[in-house]
Amino acid sequence: MTSIAVVIPAYRVAQQIVPLIARIPPLVTRIIVVDDACPEHSGALVRRQVSDPRVQLIVHAQNQGVGAAVISGMRAALEGGADIVVKLDGDAQYDPELIPYLVQPIIEGSADVAKGNRFFFLEDVAQMPALRLFGNAVLSFVNKAVSGYWDVMDPTNGFIAIHAEVLHMLPLDKLAPRYFFESDLLFRLGTLRAVVQDMPVRAHYADEQSSLRIGATALGFPLKYASRLFKRVFYNHFLRDFNLGSVSLVVGLLLLGSGGIFGALEWYRSYATGHPATAGTVMLVALQLIVSLNLLILFLTVDIGNVPRRVLHRSVLRQSGRRNP
Q1: Cβ-contact 45, 19 below 8 angstroms
Q2: Which of 25, 63, 65, 107 has its CB 3.0 to 4.6 Å from that of 37, i.e. a possible disulfide?
Q3: C-alpha distances out from residue 135 to 142, 154, 221, 307, Å
Q4: Sign of the torsion angle spanned by Cα atoms 156, 162, 165, 168
């Protein structure tokens, strides 16, 4: 029998947490609630009002962030021998009755990770708050490029299930502890080349208040995304493999840089002397830029076609002599 553990990070969810736990289906063998120093004392509320023997409560003395709360729960789930770990937000945005549906691809052995996709149902998309929809669209595209999972439509979705063998391989101590957690997790999964499958789900938006600070996010996230994009491209296209896309990227960047520098110098010379650049000079610069852009598009095409397809946890289980749950 497959052992499924659900990890619920609890912060400002006192109104939702108890009804949410009550709706978690019997298929789940363990429920780990992590009170991340919740000012509403969600953990104490669970201790008083929830009698479900599956529930385990972890309380952080200080607020460490949603990522740190999930990591604490994941560690406890692995120590308890879970085969699959599901992350479920405590604000009841996702129906816990969807958990059997979410974990099915992992149980069947067709995926290492199953991730919710809010953008599948068009009527649901139309009801999303405009600011949230725009922000998710931008973050989704950036996450696709950073993680390499170009076919995952909703990369920032927090409703996710992971096979324990894959979770064991992740450097949990290196994962971002706060709101960059989902993006960082997907990046780390990409470096392992785990198979991630989209699962269409419906999200419910109520009056919950987000603790996300837009200013801090706008300032901190770009550098984090840039560093992880560089690492991912280096790992997948140079360290572990070297392919046509690798050559295209190097030559394309060299031509783009040289063409840009040469063009800027020629423009400055023309401006300083008052003599316009010759047609040959203009054509030479244009040719370098056109060729470089085509090479970068070729790299992007190779990268999109390089999405992981081979299920990782089955290979790990086969090597260890264990059977898939």
Answers
A1: no
A2: 63
A3: 11, 12, 13, 24
A4: positive
Mean pLDDT of the chain: 90
If you write DSSP's letter for every residue of 22-88 in order, what string do you get? HTS-TT--EEEEEE-S-TT-HHHHHHHH---TTEEEEE-SS---HHHHHHHHHHHHHHTT-SEEEE-
Q: Where are the beta strands (DSSP E) in the chain?
A: 4-10, 30-35, 55-59, 84-87, 113-117, 160-163, 196-200
Record the tokens describing residue 49, joined without a space.
């009002």
The pTM assigned to this predicted structure is 0.88
Phi-psi region of 191 (alpha: psi -120 to 50; beta: other; left: phi over 0): alpha
Q: Is 302 exposed, middle or buried (0-12, 13-18, 19+ CB in 10 A)?
A: middle
Hey, what are 152's tokens? Answer: 């995952």
- Assign residue 300 a region: left if phi > 0, alpha if psi is -120 to 50, beta otherwise? alpha
pLDDT in tens, 169-209: 999 999 999 888 999 999 999 999 999 999 999 887 665 55
- Interhelix angle for 214-234 vs 130-147, to 10°? 20
The strand pairing partners of 9, in sequence order, are 34
Q: Angle at CA 161, nearest 5°, toward 136 and 61?
A: 85
